[in-house]
Specification:
- With about 500 residues, this protein is an alpha/beta fold.
- It folds into two domains: about 220 residues, Rossmann fold (3-Layer(aba) Sandwich), CATH 3.40.50; about 240 residues, Rossmann fold (3-Layer(aba) Sandwich).
- Helix content is about 50%, strand content about 10%.
- The chain contains 20 helices and ten strands.
- The strands form two sheets. It has a five-stranded parallel beta sheet, with helices on both faces. A five-stranded parallel beta sheet has the order 7-8-6-9-10, with helices on both faces.
- The chain is elongated and about 85 Å long.
Length: about 500
């Protein structure tokens, strides 16, 4: 894209000024529409060092209401960020609906530097490219406008600018060893930049190459492309997104009606096995920490199925400094204003730690589907998006364990009635629980489809038969210890 790029013809200064005023006036009007239509806009500035990204960004945001944008400068990942998935620190910065986020450097800068300095090999490069393409596509599929700008300058111009900064005692600090290395290896960097741009140029999130030899001209190009992108996104905001075919290997799951719920344990069997598996899990937690393996345990199931008691028997065996339980309720306003997976990305554990989710991202294809909190296109699309999300976690080397806690309708009624009639348990039962019970058949249909479409070979579902809570608790402990042992043997 860089070597064969036909640069746009630079207008005369008078035309640049006129077009700039027109573009700024349009951007000011668009801000109102962005807020009303709740369009989130993510703007990524990448390019050669000293190409003027920062100065263009600084002038651009003067034309935007400061209440409706955030600016982030992406630096090398911190030690804390290195213990999270590659995309974590980028995903958590996505804007809220109706607002802008501007990134001065992002995932391109991180990937290309790692590749140039041989911190990642060819396979890892390709893996990250796939991650980026899924990430950007998921954003645009969920209504985001993603604008990606690459600032291009020639080798001699870059050197001239770097030398000028070095000669200025008040600006020399801005020139880093990395900047000088890039200019010295300009051709090598150009090749990897060109490859990256080609690999990640998608119709839904294309690259815009900016001729950055002249700063005023560069700024005009950016703002004209930006208003054009916003205009298109506003017109397309009501269109449905095509559904993608599943590309992941699946594990066959039974329908809920075919799951036998007559399994049980005696009190003696329960106590013996509880002690055995909790003891083993305690040992494994120490090894997880030493080998820096993250674990994510996800619980879904019927109301009153016993998720809380099940989780408690797992956490009793863990070091409290190394795990966190996330009870997931309805999203808060700031969460609802972002991609639905954002609140789960932001709760991922760091390496060596365990995150337990009491309710999960699967709410998208259950409660949000049935209660009309998202469109049919949204929840139909979510099966693939969730599989992609979990694939990211597996590629990060995480252990993912997903439980569906199953009971029959009569058992649920007994437990609801018990809660209703026991003062110390009444807080556990709500009017919403009773309303959801009336939709049992609809939920069962949704759950069956969820199990069928998201039980991948790398993150399969496990059904816990929980008419007998003791049996379900031991089965969960067995599966958790087994999956962790399997992962640790691979390392």
């Amino acid at each position: 894209m860089l070597t064969n790029w036909s640069k746009p013809e630079k207008p005369e200064p008078e035309e640049i000024d006129l077009r700039y005023k027109e573009a700024v006036a349009k951007l000011e009007k668009q801000q109102i529409a962005i807020k009303e239509k709740k369009l989130p806009v993510l703007v990524l500035f990448e390019g050669f060092d000293a190409a003027g990204k920062g100065s263009v960004l600084g002038r651009l945001i003067r034309n935007i209401d400061p209440r409706f944008f955030k600016v982030f400068t992406t630096t090398a990942p911190t030690e804390e960020e290195k213990r999270k998935p590659f995309l974590y620190r980028h995903f958590v910065k996505i804007p809220q609906a109706g607002k802008f986020t501007f990134l001065d450097g992002g995932w391109m800068d991180e990937i290309t530097k790692d590749y140039l300095f041989e911190n990642i090999d060819e396979d890892m490069y390709k893996n990250r490219i796939d991650s980026v393409k899924r990430f950007e596509r998921q954003l645009t599929d969920n209504g985001y406008l993603v604008m990606k700008f690459f600032f291009h300058i020639k080798e001699k111009e870059q050197k001239k600018r770097l030398d000028g900064l070095l000669e200025d005692k008040n600006a020399s600090w801005r020139v880093t060893e990395s900047d000088l290395w890039q200019n010295k290896h300009y051709e090598k960097c150009t090749k990897i930049f060109e490859r990256y741009l080609y690999d990640t140029n998608q119709s839904s999130a294309p690259w815009y190459l900016i001729d950055a030899e002249n700063k005023k001209w560069a700024e005009l190009q950016v703002i004209e492309y930006l208003v054009q992108g916003i205009d298109t996104a506003l017109k397309n905001s009501s269109l449905s997104v095509p559904l993608l075919q599943n590309v992941f290997p699946m594990k066959k799951m039974p329908k809920l009606k075919d799951v036998s719920l007559d399994k049980s344990l005696t009190d003696k069997e329960y106590k013996e096995q509880l002690k055995k598996y909790q003891s083993r899990l305690r040992e494994l937690h120490n090894e997880l920490y030493l080998k820096k393996v993250p674990v994510i345990i996800a619980y879904e199931g019927w109301d009153a199925a016993g998720k809380g008691g099940n989780i408690k028997r797992i956490t009793e065996a863990l070091d409290p400094r190394g795990y966190e339980v996330h009870p997931i309720a309805s999203p808060e306003p700031h969460e609802k204003a972002r991609h639905y997976l954002w609140r789960f990305w932001s709760r991922l554990p760091k390496t060596g730690h365990i995150a337990i989710f009491d309710r999960t991202w699967y709410g998208r294809v259950m409660v949000e589907r049935l209660e009309g909190f998202c469109s049919e296109n949204d929840w139909q699309r979510a099966y693939n998006e969730i599989n992609e999300f979990e694939k990211e976690l597996v590629d990060w080397n995480a252990v993912i364990i997903k439980f569906w806690v199953q009971i029959d309708k009569d058992t649920q009624l007994e437990r609801f009635t018990d809660r209703q009639n026991t003062p110390e348990k009444q807080w556990k039962i709500t009017d919403e629980d009773w309303r959801n019970r009336e939709k049992w058949d609809l939920y069962e249909t949704a759950v069956n489809e969820m199990l069928k479409k998201t039980s991948t070979a790398f993150a399969p579902w496990h059904i816990l038969e929980s008419n007998d809570k003791k049996y379900a608790r031991i089965k969960a402990l067995k599966i958790v210890t087994s999956e962790i042992e399997k992962k640790l043997k691979e390392i």
